[in-house]
Amino acid sequence: MTKKTAYNIAVVGATGAVGKKITQILEQKNFPINELKLLSSKRSAGTKLLFKNQEITVEEATPDSFAGVDIALFSAGGSVSKQLAPEAVKHGAVVVDNTSAYRMDNEVPLVVPEVNEEDIKSHKGIIANPNCSTIQMVAALKPIKDAFGISRVIVSTYQAVSGAGNEACNELENQTKQYLNNEDMTAELLPVKGDEKHYPIAFNALPQIDVFQENGYTFEEMKMINETKKIMHAPNLPVAATCVRLPLFTSHAESVYVDVEKEGLAVEDIWNVLRDAEGVILEDDPNTQTYPTPLSASNKEEVFVGRVRKDLDNNKGIHLWVVSDNLVKGAAWNTIQIADRLIKNNWL
Amino acid sequence: MTKKTAYNIAVVGATGAVGKKITQILEQKNFPINELKLLSSKRSAGTKLLFKNQEITVEEATPDSFAGVDIALFSAGGSVSKQLAPEAVKHGAVVVDNTSAYRMDNEVPLVVPEVNEEDIKSHKGIIANPNCSTIQMVAALKPIKDAFGISRVIVSTYQAVSGAGNEACNELENQTKQYLNNEDMTAELLPVKGDEKHYPIAFNALPQIDVFQENGYTFEEMKMINETKKIMHAPNLPVAATCVRLPLFTSHAESVYVDVEKEGLAVEDIWNVLRDAEGVILEDDPNTQTYPTPLSASNKEEVFVGRVRKDLDNNKGIHLWVVSDNLVKGAAWNTIQIADRLIKNNWL
């Protein structure tokens, strides 16, 4: 069978923060598209969006939307994926799903291409895109694990509101204006849409992302813990996470502590493996105050690492500061990378 | 000798963010003051400030300013303390110093009253007030250490700009307005006044507080590491810190990982000791989304702890979220507490 040179692509959730970013990157990267279908909920259907200077009308996503689609990129929330991803697969599409619906399903590969590209091969129609804060952390940890082994990870996150969607960005902007005008802040969405209580995020820090689980951890924290083990093929790796939402629009940062297996490493040893790592950019020089920040990483597709330090007490301990755009590498770009590897490797 | 009933107090750095907070709390607490001297640099001398509805003219701080002063509360920067604290002592005053000038001096007690009040007793004229981020952490760790032992601490901080003074608050406010107006942000101060590079703090996170040391850690991180060991009388306790400045005006938060010595503790065991701890308020209920935040802790004098969790892999590991107002307990209130204990214990 001759390989196609262009593909029919569907974007589900096309009017959302991630969906828009996906369409934008498909255009920038000149992805080999035959037909692009932009799909959404009934509510947003009819919206017109531009792709390569052509207006595309967003259609309501239904099971029949996927007839003739080669690859469907889902980012419309877990319930939509649960309902429609199997329908897309039935119609012969391969789904790259950006929600948490299938991530921990044993039948579904969970992929960061720089870390576990080969896992894509065993897909049965659905490939899951990991949680944004997980993606950037494993991209930084993988080269360290390969070179020196890893026996423990403890992470505290500094996460942007765009991870909670366009509405959350509006909420941060509105609250910021209210605060500066000495008005009471209106908190109706964060930390979690639909949860019982809402707190202001402007000039604040909320130690809750997603809902609480029975063990006292939030779902976001459990995603980081469980997804990291799955992606790195390290089911017994101890991983601990504390996830915090902050008044940033874009890019997550992470303070990561790692125990490596090899003793006596120097900072230069870590620098060397990070410099050579795919998708990672080392920005680390205390002498020139060089380190990544959420603003400096925004709209870029790489994972940036700085502040590499040896622990002062534990000879196997390393501290890192990891920053990446949560909507780009943390969502849209990683999704498109998976689609790209599906095609390049003939794994469709 | 009869104990005085009111004292001559000097506030050095009276026009700064911490100095103003000190004067405000002295008034609120009805501190037993005979005469209050407000002192500053030559530049700010002449400013008029209100204390209990009386106008006080700020005077330039000189060696002679301390004649007759019983207690001098310094927060005008390390170089002023280096120069004038010994002069105040020569004039018979006891100095409570809020800068880093004397903190690691073996002759100077470094005190958080809830943790090591007894250390005040051995002062030789100067008592040091610890760094803000250290104070709130040790207040939360002390009861845990006393009950269960502590063998390791790893902290990542979420710090407000007011720790860098009034000017830093103005910078955050101005940059925020610029960003919302789509203007370029003016960065002239943060992360560190006088350092070579400056980065915007609005909608950003800067992994640098104070200048870099030769070992790749910032001075703020080394303060947390060294001061914690000194205050807790635990010179060999492994402490690691990553300090991050955030777009918050007030209150620092900390994600703290602790290894306790006792095995098999339940979250309830930690809750119980924190509930009984002096100066600590437990705010922790995942079922009702109860946890402290920088906004909820602002203008309060306690240290707030929430998100207490057992590590999922390490049976001796505990995670905490610690929040406190960096200008109140982190600076002014802790300083005044030390002054108060000096008087109450007859240790002047």
From TrEMBL, chains A, B:
<dbReference type="Pfam" id="PF01118">
    <property type="entry name" value="Semialdhyde_dh"/>
</dbReference>
<dbReference type="GO" id="GO:0019877">
    <property type="term" value="P:diaminopimelate biosynthetic process"/>
</dbReference>
<dbReference type="InterPro" id="IPR005986">
    <property type="entry name" value="Asp_semialdehyde_DH_beta"/>
</dbReference>
<feature type="binding site">
    <location>
        <position position="159"/>
    </location>
    <ligand>
        <name>substrate</name>
    </ligand>
</feature>
<dbReference type="Pfam" id="PF02774">
    <property type="entry name" value="Semialdhyde_dhC"/>
</dbReference>
<dbReference type="InterPro" id="IPR012280">
    <property type="entry name" value="Semialdhyde_DH_dimer_dom"/>
</dbReference>
<feature type="binding site">
    <location>
        <position position="245"/>
    </location>
    <ligand>
        <name>substrate</name>
    </ligand>
</feature>
<dbReference type="GO" id="GO:0004073">
    <property type="term" value="F:aspartate-semialdehyde dehydrogenase activity"/>
</dbReference>
<keyword id="KW-0560">Oxidoreductase</keyword>
<comment type="pathway">
    <text>Amino-acid biosynthesis; L-lysine biosynthesis via DAP pathway; (S)-tetrahydrodipicolinate from L-aspartate: step 2/4.</text>
</comment>
<feature type="active site" description="Proton acceptor">
    <location>
        <position position="252"/>
    </location>
</feature>
<dbReference type="GO" id="GO:0046983">
    <property type="term" value="F:protein dimerization activity"/>
</dbReference>
<keyword id="KW-0486">Methionine biosynthesis</keyword>
<feature type="binding site">
    <location>
        <position position="326"/>
    </location>
    <ligand>
        <name>NADP(+)</name>
    </ligand>
</feature>
<comment type="pathway">
    <text>Amino-acid biosynthesis; L-methionine biosynthesis via de novo pathway; L-homoserine from L-aspartate: step 2/3.</text>
</comment>
<dbReference type="InterPro" id="IPR000319">
    <property type="entry name" value="Asp-semialdehyde_DH_CS"/>
</dbReference>
<dbReference type="GO" id="GO:0009088">
    <property type="term" value="P:threonine biosynthetic process"/>
</dbReference>
<feature type="binding site">
    <location>
        <begin position="162"/>
        <end position="163"/>
    </location>
    <ligand>
        <name>NADP(+)</name>
    </ligand>
</feature>
<comment type="function">
    <text>Catalyzes the NADPH-dependent formation of L-aspartate-semialdehyde (L-ASA) by the reductive dephosphorylation of L-aspartyl-4-phosphate.</text>
</comment>
<dbReference type="GO" id="GO:0050661">
    <property type="term" value="F:NADP binding"/>
</dbReference>
<keyword id="KW-0028">Amino-acid biosynthesis</keyword>
<keyword id="KW-0220">Diaminopimelate biosynthesis</keyword>
<dbReference type="GO" id="GO:0009089">
    <property type="term" value="P:lysine biosynthetic process via diaminopimelate"/>
</dbReference>
<dbReference type="InterPro" id="IPR012080">
    <property type="entry name" value="Asp_semialdehyde_DH"/>
</dbReference>
<feature type="binding site">
    <location>
        <begin position="43"/>
        <end position="44"/>
    </location>
    <ligand>
        <name>NADP(+)</name>
    </ligand>
</feature>
<dbReference type="GO" id="GO:0009097">
    <property type="term" value="P:isoleucine biosynthetic process"/>
</dbReference>
<keyword id="KW-0521">NADP</keyword>
<keyword id="KW-0791">Threonine biosynthesis</keyword>
<comment type="similarity">
    <text>Belongs to the aspartate-semialdehyde dehydrogenase family.</text>
</comment>
<dbReference type="GO" id="GO:0051287">
    <property type="term" value="F:NAD binding"/>
</dbReference>
<feature type="binding site">
    <location>
        <position position="103"/>
    </location>
    <ligand>
        <name>phosphate</name>
    </ligand>
</feature>
<dbReference type="InterPro" id="IPR036291">
    <property type="entry name" value="NAD(P)-bd_dom_sf"/>
</dbReference>
<feature type="active site" description="Acyl-thioester intermediate">
    <location>
        <position position="132"/>
    </location>
</feature>
<dbReference type="GO" id="GO:0071266">
    <property type="term" value="P:'de novo' L-methionine biosynthetic process"/>
</dbReference>
<dbReference type="InterPro" id="IPR000534">
    <property type="entry name" value="Semialdehyde_DH_NAD-bd"/>
</dbReference>
<comment type="subunit">
    <text>Homodimer.</text>
</comment>
<protein>
    <recommendedName>
        <fullName>Aspartate-semialdehyde dehydrogenase</fullName>
        <ecNumber>1.2.1.11</ecNumber>
    </recommendedName>
</protein>
<feature type="binding site">
    <location>
        <begin position="15"/>
        <end position="18"/>
    </location>
    <ligand>
        <name>NADP(+)</name>
    </ligand>
</feature>
<feature type="domain" description="Semialdehyde dehydrogenase NAD-binding">
    <location>
        <begin position="8"/>
        <end position="123"/>
    </location>
</feature>
<keyword id="KW-0457">Lysine biosynthesis</keyword>
